[in-house]
Amino acid sequence: MSRLKTTAIRIASSSALAATAFTMVTAAPASAATLGESIAATAYAENGNGACAHGGYVGGPNQNSSCSNGQRTHAWCADFAGWVWARNGVKNLGTLNDMALSFYTYGEKYGTLSSTPHVGDAVVYNYGGSYSDDHVAIVTGVSGDKVTITGGNQGGYPGHVSTNTTTNWRVGQSPWGQRISGYISPAGSNAPSYPSPSSLPAGTLVKSPNGPDVKVMISGAGVPVAASDVTPGKYDLSKIVLVDDAAFRSLASAPPAGTVVHDQAGGIERYVIVDGAALQIGAADWTAAGYNTRPDMGVPSAWLQNAKQRNLATGIVVMDQTGKDPGRYAIVEGAALHISAEEWTANGYNEQTLMGVPGEWLKAAITKSPANGTVVMNQSGADINRYVMVNGAALHISASEWTANGYDQRSLMGVPGTWLASAVSKQIADGTVVKDASGQDSTVFVMAGGKAVPLTYADFTGLGYDKRPLNGVPGEWLAGAKAKAAPADRTMLLSPAGNTVWEVVAGKKRAMTADEFGEGKRSFHDVVSVPTAFTDSLPTV
């Protein structure tokens, strides 16, 4: 039983069946992982598990399961270490039992006991002498003067699997209150030698012998597929190739940037992979951008659906792959923000990888703005002010509100200065519903031509604004919007008192006629519903 300090480790694993792509491309061969590396990968993947993971850990024929009826049965560090070795075909496991000291006996019997740690070794603590405990774990890393060790039955009762690193790894030292007695290497393995997945052609279905997951090799990546994809994708699961476990676990889950893909189950749409996201290639881009000259890879439907919904990571710099648009853009929260020629070098954008993207996709991204609530600043640092995004407008955050309103707790995004200047000059879109982010004023307002028009509760529900998002805005900015005498010229207003649409002209209202609306004219979609008291307060032209 161990009292080792525990470290929380989160391991992400995919759980899917995989499918094959039609286009086949060869890849350079790579060597298989060593036995020690495979043992380490198996142990490390168990981080956080308790005694009843997999129904209980049990390794050699003379070891008993760590779990019975959902309950821990006994101190199980040796069961865990034996299970890890057994999963990798280690020989002569009959020497092991439920006691940690049986690993020391194994090392003496087969001549593998030493004072030098190797990846995949068992490390035994407190063997012999008058010690209160004994323990065994697995060496999962050796780097310089640091040794990483993963063990089961660690932490408080009933224990779990955890990983720790120490510089006190020498025999006789006690890194966690228990004296290291020795390192025991496995005496070979009966496990078959599996190929590395990167040595296989694209389109090959691969699987580790240590788990149920199946992936398809696409340009060196292992793309997982849900079971629901097998039939529509016509995937032949009888052709799965068993591959090295450690290499299987380390496969990238998305093809490299620039890979052209389509849904294996069918469909005419084509996509290019950038930063793990699938960007649709428009008809105008297919030939003009040269995508038609690249291999076209079929990928699993479920994976593609998720990749289509991903945004490019904030900070990526992109350009039109066709070259028709010479501009450069920084991605922030899914929006493509234009970088001026002066900012390209001055702000260090030229030092980042420039990613080509489909022109039609880029046009759509340019029309977007960072999500509401995103906090931004000038990338150059020339402007020390901070702003919060609300419906495409950048609203200034005063120094007193920066901390008081919790803006300092959000991620601060650097954006091109010229783009920011244009966002600062924008009015919040008409019809946006806002309130003071500090909560000191509970009044709700609707924006109309830059003017914050107050709403009573009856107005809020009666005009349908309770169905729209309510955006918190900096209080000082809101005070300025409230203080405006009237909405900007050409703002169109409608109150529930009648059917007349009013246009604001120099602070007054003018009744509009039906023939002012229609194709090529004004649109009723731009009319803002406001309380009758507000329209009544404006003098008539």
Short note summarizing the structure:
Helices cover 19% and strands 25% of the residues.
Features:
13 helices; four-stranded mixed sheet; 32 strands; single chain; 541 residues; 19% helix; six-stranded antiparallel sheet; elongated; disordered N terminus; alpha+beta
Folded structure, characterized:
Helix 1 crosses helix 2. The strands form eight sheets. A six-stranded antiparallel β-sheet has the order 3-8-4-5-6-7. It is built from 13 helices and 32 strands. 19% of the residues lie in helices and 25% in strands. The radius of gyration is 32 Å and the shape is elongated. The model is unreliable at 1-32 (pLDDT under 50). The protein is α+β, with helices and mostly antiparallel strands and 541 residues long.
Count of helix runs: 13
How confident overall, as mean pLDDT?
89
Beta-strand percentage? 25-35%
Helix content: 10-25%
Decide which structural class fits the backbone. alpha+beta
Major sheet summary line: 6 strands, antiparallel
* First and last CA, distance: 88 Å
Overall geometric form? elongated
Number of separate strands: 32
Q: What is the alpha-carbon Rg in Å? A: 32 Å
